[in-house]
């Protein structure tokens, strides 16, 4: 393993800028690493070796020409396959988009390229970002570098595993109910979901439009903040994008690294702790993390979010409802898979066959659920009611943030579980998002940062902040990270094929 | 009284008709409703498209502010309230020319609601209440190839053109129109015409029914006289001329009455109007009602039009057609009856344009209600569809006024214009129809006629001026009708009395 793949993105960017190494060398080192370990990890659905090297060479040329580029120029990044890329196939982990080459780049991809980052390829995920294990990828699961018999989390398991296995120093994930944070927690990496509207959704293949948000997956909190700064900010192409400057996340992360949290008030949600099903080892690691925050000077208090128990059921009405509409366009008419068009069948039948063959079981489950929830006569009882719960949850969190600066919780109730252990009962899988869903419902930012091990597997601690106060969560997360030496993310065991 | 009206009277002796009209107005914005693609009509298929209007995975809509402004203007002109706050909604159904398989529309929160307009039906003002006017996007177009009818039935394959997908529409929905009776077909027609005239006056649409920029969905139901509950309605979709709107209502009233009289039931269904037969035809009857699963569009933020903006738009509204009609009636010095004749002929705008092009109101009215109306009737066409334009008519009249054409010659020239031979001046030149007013040639012809008819000439000399007609006829014959008969007559009398 090249020494370069062990460095943080910040270090790589600095070394490239200083001419100590080149973007091409760094890119090649990571491509070699992918060659070596990805057969075992399967984090990538597409590796764009040639174009990555070409992009890197272009960055080197610009640096040599004396151009002043950003702090991550020349640093490789892996992008979740739900984000469209003009020069790479984009499948969203689904057979229905196999071999589809988008006609445009997502805004965040454009921003990555403009900042000189090198896109290595596209990472594996549960189909259309629906799942918590990558077991619902149509292209086979990704394996957790900590234990290849276990899941890497989902839906963005590919991005998290790629970063954990040092195949990429940076990755982009998307988080609708926890798809950045839960994989981050179970792979010992840092995963941040920015404020809804903080990063453009233009070019994110929509799962649930009112909940989806892209964000960074990295090995350090500072790297996450640096990547957040590159992709964040207003975009005219996304009407829900917030027209305000990106919060000072990098500055906040650096401040957190000093290890001083004096004056910071951290809330622990009573109802989170009371919820059933969290593994004792996870609870223990979380509580140790909270104690560390106290030692760093934070004041920890208990707060209440009385409607927490309704958040998960509300989410499983809102997200499938929106998904049933968002995924309607995949019908075989204009692009992607088309099944049964042999001249003997009517259009409707071809559409049905295409969707039957093209979508996997979890996507079908949610499309059916959402179609039902939006139906005449059921709308008020399901979708309408879920929206009311969303409002109540938002009020709970707004009230909580009047008392505290940030909230802390475990990221997910359990460590990486073995393949196949939760696929039989979908609700067991849904529980993985129990603690992550509320921030998607109220739109606030949240970050998962490693806080310890349970049964030898990583546990994540989640810091949640009010909307557009993303900087607060970076500060607290960085402070926690500063107490770990070496960082948990740098302790990923070596993967063997 | 035609047979159809007799039947209608019979129907109305037993049933009351209830109408509902949904008029789709394609806005004339430069770009589409949710993306920056151009909206030019008639471009090569699939040349005005982008990831957004193609509904490509990941693409997101952004609202066209001019589209919103146009919708508000329409609402204000229809006397509607403008919502303080409203949202777009998704209307979900699968259709191959709809790229996302949902239409971005508005549902229970329309931007304009609760309006009313007065429409003129044979001189009587009829108030039509407006339920709502909302914004939505148009779909693409399917072209079914291989069948005889151009419809999907029998086609071997279909082609899709997405140039129209995402073009902004405003859908204007009336409240149920009850008590229209025998006027129902005329009210439907007058209402659609009024909407067309209003949006044209607002400058928010080119309002071309023939190009589909205004399309009407016509809802008709019958209920027994005295009933309080409306009967089941049918919806005849995409009716694209005023005349067809009127015929659709009439036909549906007759058809539904026949079904009901025979003990049958009316199915709630979508029908199509066939221009050729004048009949509506049902589609496939669906066993279940379509459930569009409307929900608020999460990709767009709510709209909250600022009150100052709305008031500014209200203050800037142009003169609306009803007001304009009253003003021009007075300027043209016409009676209400004259104006009704103009309205019935659909000639108001044409006459106005002809007057603007320089003709007198009287001459403009004469041409459009006379020769041109006759021609339109003979050819089963709308006046506005004729080859002859207001500019042509004004030019024709100026040729008459300048003495270069007689009325009779002008009618011949007009027939050439109608046949597509060119402008009046071009037709006059090509067909060599200009009045012969070269006095030398005319005097020679007069002298020749006098010499050939000495008896008649003698009578005229003796004061029997009426006898000059024979000489006029001879001169007109010699000049192949291209002389002005009145001038010829004067010339003959002057010549004979001067001797």
UniProtKB/TrEMBL annotation, chain A:
<keyword id="KW-0436">Ligase</keyword>
<keyword id="KW-0067">ATP-binding</keyword>
<feature type="active site" description="Charge relay system">
    <location>
        <position position="80"/>
    </location>
</feature>
<dbReference type="InterPro" id="IPR004412">
    <property type="entry name" value="GatA"/>
</dbReference>
<dbReference type="Pfam" id="PF01425">
    <property type="entry name" value="Amidase"/>
</dbReference>
<feature type="active site" description="Acyl-ester intermediate">
    <location>
        <position position="179"/>
    </location>
</feature>
<dbReference type="InterPro" id="IPR000120">
    <property type="entry name" value="Amidase"/>
</dbReference>
<dbReference type="GO" id="GO:0006412">
    <property type="term" value="P:translation"/>
</dbReference>
<feature type="active site" description="Charge relay system">
    <location>
        <position position="155"/>
    </location>
</feature>
<keyword id="KW-0547">Nucleotide-binding</keyword>
<dbReference type="GO" id="GO:0005524">
    <property type="term" value="F:ATP binding"/>
</dbReference>
<dbReference type="GO" id="GO:0050567">
    <property type="term" value="F:glutaminyl-tRNA synthase (glutamine-hydrolyzing) activity"/>
</dbReference>
<dbReference type="GO" id="GO:0030956">
    <property type="term" value="C:glutamyl-tRNA(Gln) amidotransferase complex"/>
</dbReference>
<keyword id="KW-0648">Protein biosynthesis</keyword>
<dbReference type="InterPro" id="IPR020556">
    <property type="entry name" value="Amidase_CS"/>
</dbReference>
<comment type="subunit">
    <text>Heterotrimer of A, B and C subunits.</text>
</comment>
<protein>
    <recommendedName>
        <fullName>Glutamyl-tRNA(Gln) amidotransferase subunit A</fullName>
        <ecNumber>6.3.5.7</ecNumber>
    </recommendedName>
</protein>
<comment type="similarity">
    <text>Belongs to the amidase family. GatA subfamily.</text>
</comment>
<feature type="domain" description="Amidase">
    <location>
        <begin position="25"/>
        <end position="472"/>
    </location>
</feature>
<comment type="function">
    <text>Allows the formation of correctly charged Gln-tRNA(Gln) through the transamidation of misacylated Glu-tRNA(Gln) in organisms which lack glutaminyl-tRNA synthetase. The reaction takes place in the presence of glutamine and ATP through an activated gamma-phospho-Glu-tRNA(Gln).</text>
</comment>
<dbReference type="InterPro" id="IPR036928">
    <property type="entry name" value="AS_sf"/>
</dbReference>
<dbReference type="InterPro" id="IPR023631">
    <property type="entry name" value="Amidase_dom"/>
</dbReference>
Automatic annotation (TrEMBL), chain B:
<keyword id="KW-0067">ATP-binding</keyword>
<dbReference type="Pfam" id="PF02637">
    <property type="entry name" value="GatB_Yqey"/>
</dbReference>
<comment type="similarity">
    <text>Belongs to the GatB/GatE family. GatB subfamily.</text>
</comment>
<dbReference type="InterPro" id="IPR017959">
    <property type="entry name" value="Asn/Gln-tRNA_amidoTrfase_suB/E"/>
</dbReference>
<dbReference type="InterPro" id="IPR018027">
    <property type="entry name" value="Asn/Gln_amidotransferase"/>
</dbReference>
<dbReference type="InterPro" id="IPR014746">
    <property type="entry name" value="Gln_synth/guanido_kin_cat_dom"/>
</dbReference>
<dbReference type="InterPro" id="IPR017958">
    <property type="entry name" value="Gln-tRNA_amidoTrfase_suB_CS"/>
</dbReference>
<feature type="domain" description="Asn/Gln amidotransferase">
    <location>
        <begin position="349"/>
        <end position="496"/>
    </location>
</feature>
<dbReference type="GO" id="GO:0006412">
    <property type="term" value="P:translation"/>
</dbReference>
<keyword id="KW-0436">Ligase</keyword>
<dbReference type="InterPro" id="IPR003789">
    <property type="entry name" value="Asn/Gln_tRNA_amidoTrase-B-like"/>
</dbReference>
<keyword id="KW-0648">Protein biosynthesis</keyword>
<dbReference type="GO" id="GO:0050567">
    <property type="term" value="F:glutaminyl-tRNA synthase (glutamine-hydrolyzing) activity"/>
</dbReference>
<dbReference type="InterPro" id="IPR023168">
    <property type="entry name" value="GatB_Yqey_C_2"/>
</dbReference>
<comment type="function">
    <text>Allows the formation of correctly charged Asn-tRNA(Asn) or Gln-tRNA(Gln) through the transamidation of misacylated Asp-tRNA(Asn) or Glu-tRNA(Gln) in organisms which lack either or both of asparaginyl-tRNA or glutaminyl-tRNA synthetases. The reaction takes place in the presence of glutamine and ATP through an activated phospho-Asp-tRNA(Asn) or phospho-Glu-tRNA(Gln).</text>
</comment>
<comment type="subunit">
    <text>Heterotrimer of A, B and C subunits.</text>
</comment>
<dbReference type="Pfam" id="PF02934">
    <property type="entry name" value="GatB_N"/>
</dbReference>
<keyword id="KW-0547">Nucleotide-binding</keyword>
<dbReference type="GO" id="GO:0070681">
    <property type="term" value="P:glutaminyl-tRNAGln biosynthesis via transamidation"/>
</dbReference>
<dbReference type="InterPro" id="IPR006075">
    <property type="entry name" value="Asn/Gln-tRNA_Trfase_suB/E_cat"/>
</dbReference>
<protein>
    <recommendedName>
        <fullName>Aspartyl/glutamyl-tRNA(Asn/Gln) amidotransferase subunit B</fullName>
        <ecNumber>6.3.5.-</ecNumber>
    </recommendedName>
</protein>
<dbReference type="GO" id="GO:0005524">
    <property type="term" value="F:ATP binding"/>
</dbReference>
């Amino acid at each position: 393993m090249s020494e370069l793949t062990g460095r943080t993105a910040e270090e790589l960017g600095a070394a490239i800028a200083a001419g100590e190494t080149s973007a091409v060398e760094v890119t090649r080192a990571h491509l070699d690493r992918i060659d070596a370990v990805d057969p075992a990890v399967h984090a990538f659905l597409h590796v764009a070796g040639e174009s990555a090297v070409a992009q890197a060479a272009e960055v080197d040329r610009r640096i040599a020409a004396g151009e002043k580029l950003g702090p991550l120029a020349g640093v490789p990044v892996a992008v979740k396959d739900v984000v469209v890329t003009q020069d790479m196939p984009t499948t969203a982990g689904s057979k229905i988009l196999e071999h589809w080459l988008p006609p445009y780049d997502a805004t965040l991809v454009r921003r990555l390229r403009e900042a000189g980052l090198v896109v290595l390829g596209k990472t594996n995920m549960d189909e259309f970002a629906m799942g918590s294990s990558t077991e619902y990828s149509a292209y086979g699961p990704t394996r957790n570098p900590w234990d290849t018999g276990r899941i890497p989390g989902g839906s963005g398991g590919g991005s998290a595993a790629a970063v954990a296995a040092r195949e990429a120093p940076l990755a982009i994930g998307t988080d609708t109910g926890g798809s950045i944070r839960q994989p981050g927690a179970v792979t010992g990496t840092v995963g941040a979901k920015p404020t809804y509207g903080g990063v453009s959704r233009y070019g994110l293949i929509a799962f649930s439009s009112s909940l989806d948000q892209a964000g960074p997956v990295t090995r350090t909190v500072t790297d996450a903040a640096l990547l957040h700064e590159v992709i964040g900010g207003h975009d005219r192409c996304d009407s829900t994008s917030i027209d305000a400057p990106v919060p000072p996340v990098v500055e906040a992360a650096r401040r957190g690294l000093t290890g001083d949290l004096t004056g910071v008030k951290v809330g622990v949600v009573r109802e989170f702790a009371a919820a059933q099903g969290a593994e004792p080892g996870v609870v223990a690691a979380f509580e140790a993390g909270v104690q560390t925050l106290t030692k760093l000077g934070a004041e920890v208090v208990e707060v209440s979010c009385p409607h927490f128990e309704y958040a998960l059921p509300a989410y499983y009405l809102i997200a499938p409802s929106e998904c049933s509409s968002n995924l309607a366009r995949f019908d075989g008419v204009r692009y992607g898979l088309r099944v049964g068009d042999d001249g003997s069948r009517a259009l409707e039948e071809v559409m049905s066959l295409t969707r039957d063959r093209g979508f996997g079981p979890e996507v079908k489950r949610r499309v059916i659920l959402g179609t039902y929830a939006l139906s005449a006569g059921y709308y008020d009882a399901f979708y309408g009611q879920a929206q009311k719960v969303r409002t109540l949850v938002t009020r709970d969190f707004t009230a909580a943030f009047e008392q505290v600066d940030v909230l802390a919780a475990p990221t997910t109730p359990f460590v990486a579980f073995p393949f196949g252990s939760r696929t039989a009962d979908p609700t067991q899988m849904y529980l993985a998002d129990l603690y992550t869903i509320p921030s998607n419902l109220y739109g606030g930012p949240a970050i998962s940062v490693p806080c310890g091990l349970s049964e030898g597997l990583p546990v994540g601690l989640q810091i949640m902040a009010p909307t557009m106060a993303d900087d607060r969560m970076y500060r607290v997360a960085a402070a926690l990270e500063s107490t770990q030496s070496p960082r948990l993310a740098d302790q990923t065991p070596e993967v063997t094929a | 009284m035609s047979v159809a009206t007799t039947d209608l009277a019979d129907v109305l002796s037993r049933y009351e008709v209830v109408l509902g009209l949904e008029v789709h107005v394609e806005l004339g914005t430069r770009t589409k409703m949710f993306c920056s693609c151009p909206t030019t009509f008639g471009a090569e298929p699939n040349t005005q498209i982008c990831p957004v209007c193609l509904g490509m995975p990941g693409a997101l809509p952004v609202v066209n502010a001019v589209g919103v402004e146009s919708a508000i203007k329409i609402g204000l002109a229809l006397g509607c309230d403008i919502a303080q706050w409203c949202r777009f909604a998704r209307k979900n159904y699968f259709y191959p020319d709809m790229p996302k398989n949902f239409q971005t529309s508005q549902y229970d929160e329309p931007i304009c609601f609760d309006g009313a307009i007065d429409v003129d039906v044979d001189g009587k003002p009829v108030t039509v209440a407006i339920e709502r006017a909302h914004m939505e996007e148009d779909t693409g177009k399917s072209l079914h190839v291989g069948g005889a009818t151009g419809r999907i039935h029998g086609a071997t394959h279909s082609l899709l053109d997405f140039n129209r997908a995402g073009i902004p529409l405003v859908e204007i929905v009336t409240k149920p129109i009850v008590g229209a009776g025998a006027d129902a077909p005329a009210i439907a027609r007058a209402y659609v015409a009024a909407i067309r005239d209003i949006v044209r006056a607002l400058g928010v649409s080119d309002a071309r029914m023939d190009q589909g920029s205004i399309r009407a969905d016509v809802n008709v139901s019958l209920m027994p006289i005295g009933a309080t509950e409306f009967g089941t309605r049918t919806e005849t979709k995409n009716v694209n001329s005023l005349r067809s709107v009127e015929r659709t209502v009439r036909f549906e009233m007759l058809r539904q009455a026949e079904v009901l009289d025979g003990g049958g039931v009316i199915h709630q269904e979508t029908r199509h109007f066939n221009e050729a037969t004048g009949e509506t035809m049902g589609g496939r009857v669906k066993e279940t009602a379509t459930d569009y699963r409307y929900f608020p569009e999460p990709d767009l933020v709510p709209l909250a039009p600022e009150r100052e903006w709305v008031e500014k738009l209200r203050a800037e509204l142009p003169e609306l057609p009803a007001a304009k009609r009253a003003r021009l009636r007075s300027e043209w010095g016409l009676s209400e009856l004259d104006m009704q004749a103009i309205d019935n002929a659909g000639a108001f705008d044409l006459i106005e344009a002809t007057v603007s092009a320089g003709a007198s109101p009287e001459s403009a009215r004469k041409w459009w209600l006379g020769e041109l109306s006759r021609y339109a009737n003979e050819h089963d066409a709308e006046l506005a569809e004729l080859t002859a334009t207001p500019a042509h008519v004004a030019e024709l009249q100026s040729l008459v006024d300048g003495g270069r054409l007689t009325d009779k010659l002008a009618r011949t020239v007009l027939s050439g214009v109608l046949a597509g031979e060119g402008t009046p001046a071009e037709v006059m030149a090509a067909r060599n129809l200009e009045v012969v007013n070269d006095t030398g040639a005319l005097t020679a012809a007069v002298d020749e006629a006098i010499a050939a008819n000495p008896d008649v000439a003698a009578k005229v000399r003796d004061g029997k001026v009426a006898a000059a007609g024979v000489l006029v006829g001879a001169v007109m014959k010699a000049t192949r009708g291209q002389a002005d008969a009145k001038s010829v007559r004067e010339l003959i009398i002057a010549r004979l009395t001067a001797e």
